[in-house]
């Protein structure tokens, strides 16, 4: 069974976007995964197809209405649909490689792309939306975040990457950032490929790559589980 993605959005023309080319695009063409877009505005009941209203309690901006969004979710994800319901949101749990792998191993996902100031909390609770963040920054809407999430998931689907090992030796897979990479030419502007990488000694190469990964992780992301412990200061 292929991975089935349903994206609820006010801008379905943003999809597949980058997901229609390269590895994800080929996988989409061959049916490894499928993409459905649902126009949230189609579920508005008034002649203006209104999807938002002023925030209760006052304040700037507009809020997506619970009743309209609930109808769209119920259409895309009827009772019995096993797919998780995700809401792309800056206040959500940070997306991790572990969560990406969980999603890739599942039947798909229903992804809600918020707009304006946010989504009525009641529909989040009533429809069991899992809020997911792709970083500590604000986007104009959930669509770019949904594209990021789907790209991360699709590349892990069986057969998408030519070499499955590629997905096992990347940043975050083992709690570490990935080691540096090199290729020809042997010399570039006076900089040489590290000698160990051309030695043919696979044990030494593996040790070098591990040490470099640990060093980079400690320098740039000491919060990751693979980072070396900080020395005790007396």
TrEMBL record:
<comment type="subunit">
    <text>Homodimer.</text>
</comment>
<dbReference type="InterPro" id="IPR029028">
    <property type="entry name" value="Alpha/beta_knot_MTases"/>
</dbReference>
<dbReference type="InterPro" id="IPR002649">
    <property type="entry name" value="tRNA_m1G_MeTrfase_TrmD"/>
</dbReference>
<feature type="binding site">
    <location>
        <position position="114"/>
    </location>
    <ligand>
        <name>S-adenosyl-L-methionine</name>
    </ligand>
</feature>
<feature type="region of interest" description="Disordered">
    <location>
        <begin position="214"/>
        <end position="234"/>
    </location>
</feature>
<feature type="compositionally biased region" description="Basic and acidic residues">
    <location>
        <begin position="214"/>
        <end position="223"/>
    </location>
</feature>
<comment type="similarity">
    <text>Belongs to the RNA methyltransferase TrmD family.</text>
</comment>
<dbReference type="Pfam" id="PF01746">
    <property type="entry name" value="tRNA_m1G_MT"/>
</dbReference>
<dbReference type="GO" id="GO:0005829">
    <property type="term" value="C:cytosol"/>
</dbReference>
<dbReference type="InterPro" id="IPR029026">
    <property type="entry name" value="tRNA_m1G_MTases_N"/>
</dbReference>
<keyword id="KW-0819">tRNA processing</keyword>
<feature type="binding site">
    <location>
        <begin position="134"/>
        <end position="139"/>
    </location>
    <ligand>
        <name>S-adenosyl-L-methionine</name>
    </ligand>
</feature>
<comment type="function">
    <text>Specifically methylates guanosine-37 in various tRNAs.</text>
</comment>
<feature type="domain" description="tRNA methyltransferase TRMD/TRM10-type">
    <location>
        <begin position="6"/>
        <end position="224"/>
    </location>
</feature>
<dbReference type="GO" id="GO:0002939">
    <property type="term" value="P:tRNA N1-guanine methylation"/>
</dbReference>
<keyword id="KW-0963">Cytoplasm</keyword>
<dbReference type="InterPro" id="IPR023148">
    <property type="entry name" value="tRNA_m1G_MeTrfase_C_sf"/>
</dbReference>
<keyword id="KW-0808">Transferase</keyword>
<dbReference type="GO" id="GO:0052906">
    <property type="term" value="F:tRNA (guanine(37)-N1)-methyltransferase activity"/>
</dbReference>
<keyword id="KW-0489">Methyltransferase</keyword>
<keyword id="KW-0949">S-adenosyl-L-methionine</keyword>
<dbReference type="InterPro" id="IPR016009">
    <property type="entry name" value="tRNA_MeTrfase_TRMD/TRM10"/>
</dbReference>
<protein>
    <recommendedName>
        <fullName>tRNA (guanine-N(1)-)-methyltransferase</fullName>
        <ecNumber>2.1.1.228</ecNumber>
    </recommendedName>
</protein>
């Amino acid at each position: 069974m292929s991975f089935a993605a349903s994206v609820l959005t006010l801008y379905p023309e943003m999809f597949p976007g980058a997901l229609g080319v390269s590895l994800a695009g080929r996988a989409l063409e061959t049916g490894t995964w499928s993409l459905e877009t649902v126009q949230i505005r189609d579920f508005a009941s008034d002649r203006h197809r209104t999807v938002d209203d002023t925030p209760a309690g006052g304040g700037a901006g507009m809020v997506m209405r619970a009743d309209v969004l609930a109808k769209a979710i119920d259409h895309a994800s009827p009772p019995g649909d096993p797919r998780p319901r995700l809401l792309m949101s800056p206040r959500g749990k940070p997306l991790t490689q572990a969560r990406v792998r969980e999603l890739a191993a599942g039947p798909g996902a229903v992804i809600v792309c918020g707009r304006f100031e946010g989504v009525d909390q009641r529909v989040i609770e009533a429809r069991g939306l899992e809020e997911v963040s792709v970083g500590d920054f604000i986007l104009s809407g959930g669509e770019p975040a949904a594209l990021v999430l789907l790209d991360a998931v699709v590349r892990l689907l069986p057969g998408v990457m030519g070499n499955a090992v590629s997905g096992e030796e990347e940043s975050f897979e083992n709690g570490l950032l990935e080691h540096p990479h090199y290729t020809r030419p042997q010399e570039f502007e006076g900089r040489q490929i590290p000698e160990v990488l051309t030695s043919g000694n696979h044990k030494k190469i593996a040790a070098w790559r591990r040490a470099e990964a640990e060093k980079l992780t400690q320098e740039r992301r000491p919060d990751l589980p693979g980072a070396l412990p900080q020395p005790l200061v007396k």
